[in-house]
């Protein structure tokens, strides 16, 4: 324990000893008495511990300034940060700020605010997710740091420091904007800042809410304020500052506020009554003379563009997109060593811009981004194909490689031409293979993402990935138990693609313990790993042999399947229904389900799912039912007589989404062949619903246009595309509803559709029947990815697919009515 005199000289001595000296910081962190003294020095003389009252005011202020500087320096050490949290340093800074007055010296006010900034940013870096690149999160104090950071985002804390954003001095407003820019890492924190209003404004709003006659109009006027208007408005005003540091901080803060935040981004992207959009004010700064301002503006514009168009419901500013892409290209082409950090950030900006958007991926590809990124990676990667890297590579180079490769993976996600350029023209597979074994976790993650994207192409999967050994290398990473969870999840997403039915590696994976590892991941409790493991099982079962189905389901566990249906989230339930749908793609599979799950249990879950609040769950449950109905007469009777099942199916027919109507009408059509089931169908009131469907037109089509009913046994051309949570996609009609293959990170491939012979629905392989993995790319920064799938089609193709779906619904409904009204005479 060290006892130091509380004076400016002694505190300066401590400050000089720790600045840039990690070992000194670590040693000082163990001196609890000194830490207590430093924190106490932040306080006003009349509160808690303070210097002697006889000290001159200037000396008191100098002591507080030096104490704030020392604490700010110590915050960069994890050991010291732990001790600071033990003694409530965040609270001490907030108390100190609350007592500051405009008449206090700017040096004192600035030191206190910058001390809070340093402490907050140090906590954010440990709490995560990382802002630039993927970093391992194995800190022992991470949970405590999260609690401390959450404290600073509570409304009472925000009331203390956020108003300082309007301080006329850049020395005060800049660190506040930097706190917003760099400490806001989670959706919860983003929501807290978006909805924050100054205390007096909240009181006014509360009074308004109690006036019944004014409530509606006033609340509507104030709604933008509740959606981040106050903070966004003041940050936007700071962009015009002449202080370049404040300007950069304001742009970065707006970027952080807008990221994945449609309520704020949309306001910034659209014009108001008198002024142009804030976005048009930001775009010119991408061409600023200051490179850091360019980066901040490009990042800000990117998050506004993507945040304001989450579902392509708002038009994209094409000129702004071109400006950002041109900036990325010029920055990437700059080869000076000191530009590594800027090149890294430019690559990440491109990644954020194009992720999950096929149009923007195409725009980046057309403007030469892919060639520049690949050339840069090859420039910093050894020529030999090595699987053992040295430990001497600078972290900045590893980050540059990671950022380039995730951008390449994002760009390659939707288009086979782009994937062929990566594999055949740029010869990039050896680089990817080598990076799978890099020491930097982010590089391994990025390499796995590249494998996931490339494995969406049938030709690449069956040739390059197999012949190069890439498929077995990704499998070894997937099986590695000591690997970072983000890398494991990324590798799993690629494995999901590689186990599709036409893959040569499927039987090899099975022989080498695929199911053992998937079962292990299902038991780990990680929601993302659980979801993707189920997705892999779903893909694995599609078009598999009866013996494979039996073996896979035995290892998965029938009891676990029922548990997922009963207690799982919507995504888990959707994938579980998909798994059973693939099992039930044959009569043997149907028997397997009814043998291992009590009929009343599986039919109960289907009955509930038919009216689920999740459209995806309803869709997959309907597909499963359409397959089960192809079972024997006894199984059909059980389905038809199950309480409320037909009533809920009628609700699905009448009120469900159009894509569920096709398998639902097929269910009725097949059941109508069964004499006992016909009575149950009639009693459920389904006949009137079918008649209504015969007149229904989902695409402006009249019944008269259905001149050539689609034969149930005929093949349907096109590509089956999976639409899953977080993704967008269209599916031409398939036939075999039971065969469903999805993967959490890629896309869909064309597969032959299997059909049952004879009349009825057949075993369906329509939407989600086989999809490959595609992750939302912001998952890179610690967010667990949510599987999604998107396959671009032309507008004409989409319209044609919708028309085919309409025709089939009408055709099924008419055929079912004929059987119900004429029975055996119809045959």
Topology summary:
Elements: H1 8-18, H2 22-29, H3 32-41, H4 57-74, H5 78-86, H6 89-99, H7 106-127, H8 142-152, H9 155-161, H10 170-183, H11 187-195, H12 199-209, H13 215-238, H14 244-258, H15 262-269, H16 278-282, H17 291-308, H18 318-332, H19 340-354, H20 358-366, H21 369-379, H22 395-411, H23 416-425, H24 429-435, H25 441-454, H26 458-462, H27 464-467, H28 470-479, H29 485-498, H30 506-511, H31 514-522, H32 527-541, H33 546-556, H34 558-567, H35 570-583, H36 587-596, H37 599-609, H38 615-628, H39 633-641, H40 645-655, H41 658-671, H42 675-683, H43 686-694, H44 795-822
Helix pairs in contact: 1-4, 2-5, 3-4, 4-7, 6-7, 7-8, 7-10, 10-14, 11-13, 13-14, 13-15, 14-17, 15-17, 17-18, 17-19, 18-19, 18-21, 19-22, 21-22, 22-25, 25-29, 28-29, 29-32, 31-32, 32-35, 34-35, 35-38, 37-38, 37-40, 38-41, 39-42, 40-41, 40-43, 41-44, 43-44
What does this entry look like structurally?
There is one protein chain. Among the domains are: 1-152, Leucine-rich Repeat Variant (Alpha Horseshoe); 170-201 and 224-316; 531-825, Leucine-rich Repeat Variant. Helix content is 63%, strand content 0%. Residues 215-228, 698-738, 741-761 and 774-799 have low confidence and may be disordered. It is built from 44 helices and no strands. Helix 29 (485-498) packs parallel to helix 32 and helix 39 packs parallel to helix 42 (675-683). It is globular. It is mainly α and 827 residues long. The termini are far apart. Residues 738-749 have a biased composition (Low complexity). It is found in: Cytoplasm; Nucleus. This is ARM repeat-containing protein.
